[in-house]
Amino acid sequence: MKFGGTSLGDGKRIRNVASLIKRYVKGNELVVVASAMSNVTDELIRLTSLAESGREDEVDELLEKLTSQHEDAVGEAVREERISAEVWRYVQRDLDGLKRAVKGVCYIMEATPRTRDLILSFGERLSTRILWGAMLDLGMPAVYLTGKDAGIVTDSNFGEAVPLIETTRLNLSSRLGDLISDGKIPVVTGFIAADTSGVITTLGRGGSDYTATLIGSAIGADEIWLWSDVDGLMTANPRLVPNAKVLPEVSYAEAIEMAIFGAKGLHPRAFEPTMEKGIPVRIRNTFNPENPGTLITRSRTVSDNVVKAVLLVDNVGMVSVRGTSIVGRPGTAAKVLDAVARRSVNVMMISQSVSESSISFIVKRDALEKAVAAIETSLLSLGIAKDVDVEEDVAVVAVVGEGMRGTPGIAAKVFKAVASKGINVMMISQGASELNISFVVRGADAVEAVRAVHDEFNLGTEG
Ligand code: ASP
Ligand code: MG
Questions:
Q1: What average pLDDT score do residues 266-295 get?
Q2: Residue 210 has pLDDT above 60, yes or no
Q3: Domains in the chain, CATH or no CATH each
Q4: Which ligand is located closest to the Cα atom of residue 230?
Q5: What is the mean pLDDT of residues 92-105?
Q6: How far is the CA of 43 from the centre of ligand 1 (A)?
Q7: Does 319 score more than 60 pLDDT?
Q8: Distance separating alpha carbons of residues 378 and 19, to the nearest angstrom
Q9: CB within 6 Å of ligand 1 — which residues?
Q10: Distance 458 CA to ligand 1 centre (A)
Q11: In ligand 1, which atom is closest to the CA atom of 124?
């Protein structure tokens, strides 16, 4: 069971999570994974940049805030005085460690990716320690471990480290396996791991899901439950589409697609470890535990809708490289994409016309300037292409569903729905997997486009 940040948002919620865990102790063997308390990872990122720019007063203020937040949480989550004192000792030790690391950054006004991961790791260390205390307080045989203690070993790609799968699997199954057969409940920090030299790494934002699925697959769990603050994966963002509903079942492939397009609280790589073994993953809501949530399994559910969900990615920009001089020149697409990649800009979507007279791609808006600069430098100066067009305010609408594969007429229906609202489609892309049709519209049209497709396929609740 993995618990997300909102579910651990304050001491009361942490205690609530501990009682929720307690309901399942009887008759089950459990491993618990915890995220940082809500917003703490963001605050730690902010703390690091304040420290880098040497703004010590603000650093101190934020450190104070994080200290009292965790102090309050210990007070609310753990009642028995002896346990509470012990938890507080550990929490203080970690807060000291955090302070030292951040002060170090203040002095040298620089944070390397490695330092950043060290600082970020405190979010999960603190929250997990408090959850551990609350579990002890409720009489459960909890054992605290960091992801590193548990044996998650990664490469040294700080910030987005990749697990060495076999080493990790061996470590996790023996270390956690031993604890479980001793009748203990391991409580593991999400998100953090260590490289082969034992230096702390992190698995990328939202990485606690990944921690949970790595553990679940290593120990051969029957199910992996990702507890968050939503009832499950939905047909659309309910804030944009009021009649959106929870999907009772989706396949791994669909869940991955939804995660890539930003469905709440999912790490895109989280399903890799479970796919292989076919371990079912359930998304559940700590604030509504009676709800069964969304079940994610290997099998494709053919019976229901071919289109499962309509997602919106905003804050993106579109870059188009045009010009007759690129027509029929082999390798232009490669050069364009290579120039962008070398500046570490992630390309989210690509489309090229058959005439090869234009190539368009989508990047996050905050990377737009970098992408354009990269292209202008390396291509225009070579005289390869004529023109670079930039659209700063666009959005991607992604229509996801495994049943679309081989079902004719889906794209026609999608675009008819959008056209009927008078919305102009600026770019289209469909992967050969046919799992997803994505298209780009103006930012101002995006929500209406999502609603139109959602309605066209009757994805919402009736009435
Ligand atoms: N705390 C980390 C984050 O906010 C990891 C997670 O929540 O899964 O990204
Ligand atoms: Mg999270």
A1: 91
A2: yes
A3: 2-229 (3.40.1160.10), 309-457 (3.30.2130.10)
A4: 2
A5: 98
A6: 12
A7: yes
A8: 58
A9: 5, 35-36, 41, 123, 190-191, 205-208
A10: 34
A11: 1
